[in-house]
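Hi again,

Forgot to attach this to my earlier email, sorry! This is the prediction with LCYHOYRF bound. I've pasted everything inline since the attachment limit keeps bouncing my files.
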Amino acid sequence: MSGQYIRDGAEIYRRSFATIRAEADLGGLPDDVARVAVRMIHSCGMVDLVDDLAFSAGAVPAAVAALRAGAPIFCDAQMVAAGVTRRRLPASNDVICTLSDASVPGLASSLGTTRSAAAVELWRDRLEGSVVAIGNAPTALFHLLDMVAAGAGRPAAVLGIPVGFIGAAESKDALAANDLGLEYLIVRGRRGGSAMTAGALNALASEDE
Ligand SMILES: C/C1=C2N=C(/C=C3N=C(/C(C)=C4\N[C@@](C)([C@@H]5N=C1[C@](C)(CCC(=O)O)[C@H]5CC(=O)O)[C@@](C)(CC(=O)O)[C@@H]4CCC(=O)O)[C@@](C)(CC(=O)O)[C@@H]\3CCC(=O)O)C(C)(C)[C@@H]/2CCC(=O)O
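Structure tokens for the complex follow:
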């Protein structure tokens, strides 16, 4: 019964990407963004994701340049960090998630916010020029925007792809409307997630399929 299926990983990837390119309407996207979109769709199976994709003109070049220059990658969730394929990273970039830092629960209590948002406080020292990848927690994205507005370092690019029903759409809309000079890539609405965000990062990290 299970005899007829494809066992070659490279062939599975090749067919997947060919299917996505055949079914998704990528025509309105610049080539560099289309490559990122393909990998995001690959992570979730939704070819209509393109409809909700929004990005600033410089987002992909800025993220690619920052990664090549060795910028750290800050992730809101371990799931995002775990999904980054280390061998694709162009400069052995640090992939950092501070959610499990021992100081975070206390910080969350004192700030009156979630652990995800409190963990963003620990990014301050290396935020300038970094690549930020938010795939889970809307509060982390809101907090990042507040921090940058209050004078914290400005990341080179922000992938704002949190998922969910409470604050997800609003946090992404706020990122897209930012007047802080932040380059961004978002998925409007409720859709998002760690896998999709890691997929976007993996596309930015290397042009290899
Ligand atoms: C409100 C939260 C939401 N979480 C969602 C979806 C998923 N979260 C998973 C896991 C394992 C984690 N979520 C936390 C980040 C946790 N989730 C929250 C918070 C309560 C608040 C975040 C926010 O609203 O901004 C948050 C806890 C916090 O205080 O920050 C997590 C840290 C909880 C924990 O285990 O302690 C943890 C992240 C672990 C990591 O580092 O990777 C899920 C796997 C769900 C599950 O466990 O059942 C899932 C993953 C989705 C994904 O693709 O990333 C929502 C839906 C995003 C939700 C926020 C919106 C909503 O409810 O409407």
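The longest helix spans residues 9-23. The pocket of LCYHOYRF is lined by residues 77-79, 99, 114-116, 135-140, 162-168, 193-195 (CB under 6 Å).

That should be everything now.

G.
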